[in-house]
């Protein structure tokens, strides 16, 4: 796991966050402009290398809808995921394109659709949460396989806002949690080298107690990474 923390003021992420909207749900405030790139902290096992990351985010009003989860072969709303989300294509805004490029540079992975899913922007209001789950598919019927590019091998998640209280991302078996800090990001592998899901990645978005939480997910698939992140029969290699 690699965790990228934001700086204390100064610098710039490149694209800038753009303007601010109104309150709550539609047009909820987008994170403000500013900040730079600084690395610290860590997490998971074996002290992974920290990697530089920076980005901007457009002011575009995103078409937020109630978030869904994989439910059999389909996707459906569920009480265990209370948030709104939207998918942003890289072609929807130059900043998204730039962000994709940076995620690719930081991870070294091919994040181009369909090897990477479109960027998913998620908004949690007070009480919003996502109970413990895996990002990768755990059943062959999962809609995750609809892209025909294999399972979600890795997750890159960016915190687009801070919150006043609550909202941490908790890794249940790995036994640590990450606070919601604007412009921080986290990367982890969901699958072992042999393609099996890593149960240590079980994670949750804790309920937001005070504030308005925004994150962006980039899910990267197995295909497209064959010569970058090689598979082996030894899951730990
Ligand atoms: O909001 C969080 O902290 C976690 C979000 C998450 O795990 C997801 O969207 O899959
Ligand atoms: Fe997740």
UniProtKB/TrEMBL annotation:
Q: Which domain of life is it from?
A: Eukaryota
Quote the Pfam families the UniProt record gives.
Answer: 2OG-FeII_Oxy_3
Q: Which organism is it from?
A: Knipowitschia caucasica
Provide ranges: composition bias, Gly residues: 8-47
Gene3D superfamilies attached to this UniProt entry: q2cbj1_9rhob like domain
| Oxidoreductase in keyword set | yes
Disordered: region residues: 1-49
Q: A cellular component term (GO) from this record?
A: endoplasmic reticulum
Alphabetical list of PANTHER family matching this protein: PROLYL 4-HYDROXYLASE ALPHA SUBUNIT, PROLYL 4-HYDROXYLASE SUBUNIT ALPHA-3
Q: Tell me the GO molecular function terms.
A: iron ion binding; L-ascorbic acid binding; procollagen-proline 4-dioxygenase activity
What protein name applies here?
A: Fe2OG dioxygenase domain-containing protein
Domain (Fe2OG dioxygenase) spans: 110-222
Q: Which cofactor does it need?
A: L-ascorbate
Q: Which UniProt keywords apply?
A: Dioxygenase, Iron, Metal-binding, Oxidoreductase, Vitamin C
